[in-house]
Write a structure and sequence with these properties.
With 251 residues, this protein is mostly helical. Helices cover 70% and strands 5% of the residues. Strands 1-2 form a two-stranded antiparallel sheet. Helix 2 packs antiparallel against helix 4. 13% of the residues are buried.
């Protein structure tokens, strides 16, 4: 009966422990941190879209566009609001992360001591096998937490994408709808002006003897008769004043 190569077995267990530790810390620190950053980014994007959609809806009300365009923009608003709520739910990782130990890392030193006291063969291999199992269980739990949060973040991204597409459709429809409404308004105003002018012409009286309610102007000065004299003309008589008496003499 050949002897077992326990030394090689222990080296293999060390390799397995090294791999499982890397995976555990990646799920617990790296991926967790990355997902939190992505979730915060989605929160900012959804909040910005909600504010932009609210301002855009007020502008659309002033332009009096078609109700379907307003409905599309309202749909985009609610999609962004839903994305914001999903992000708030996903970031805390409600399932949480599981620790390798239950009562502290000192429990592993006690476990190694118990193996030594029981005089079991190959204590190092036994300890490595149990240690790998603890890391594997904790890694599996953390992996499930990150996978659930990753699904929620993907759903959030799709909500934001669809919301943005709806907003672009509504904004692209505004100039077309607005130009058509302007043309209709201009046609209506032109027709109303034509009708008003025609109606005013028809309602005007045709009496040709109608006169203004003011007196006629006076006749020109030359039409009143008499001679117009200037200072260069010779006077018909002279008036002299002598010793208080007035004498009128003819030339």
């Amino acid at each position: 009966m050949s002897e077992y190569d326990y030394r090689s077995y222990e080296k293999n267990l060390e390799k397995v422990l090294e791999s499982v530790q890397k995976d555990y810390w990646a799920q617990y620190i790296d991926i967790n941190h990355h997902q939190v950053i992505v979730g915060r980014t989605y929160l900012w994007v959804s909040a910005a879209l909600i504010g932009a959609y609210a301002a855009g809806y007020q502008k659309l009300e002033q332009l009096s566009v078609h109700p379907i365009i307003s409905f599309i923009l309202i749909t985009a608003f609610f999609l962004s609001a839903i994305a914001f709520g999903i992000c708030l739910y996903a970031i805390p990782a409600r399932k949480g992360y599981k620790s390798v130990h239950q009562n502290g890392w000192g429990e592993f030193s006690h476990q190694a001591y118990d193996i030594l006291c029981n005089k079991k063969e190959n204590p190092y291999a036994l300890f490595l096998a149990d240690y790998i199992s603890k890391f594997d269980n904790a890694h599996y739990h953390s992996l499930g937490t990150n996978q659930k949060r990753a699904k929620l973040l993907r759903v959030t991204s799709w909500f934001l994408i669809v919301s943005f597409i709806f907003a672009m459709l509504s904004l692209a429809s505004v100039p077309i709808n607005y130009n058509k409404s302007d043309l209709r308004k201009e046609n209506v105003m032109t027709e109303s002006n034509d009708n008003t002018s025609n109606t005013g012409t028809e309602n005007q009286p045709t009496n040709t003897t109608d006169k203004p309610n003011i007196p006629p102007p006076p006749p020109p000065a030359g039409s009143q008769g008499g001679q117009i004299q200037t200072h260069g003309a010779k006077p018909e008589y002279l008036i002299r004043v002598t010793n208080g008496a007035t004498i009128k003499s003819e030339d």
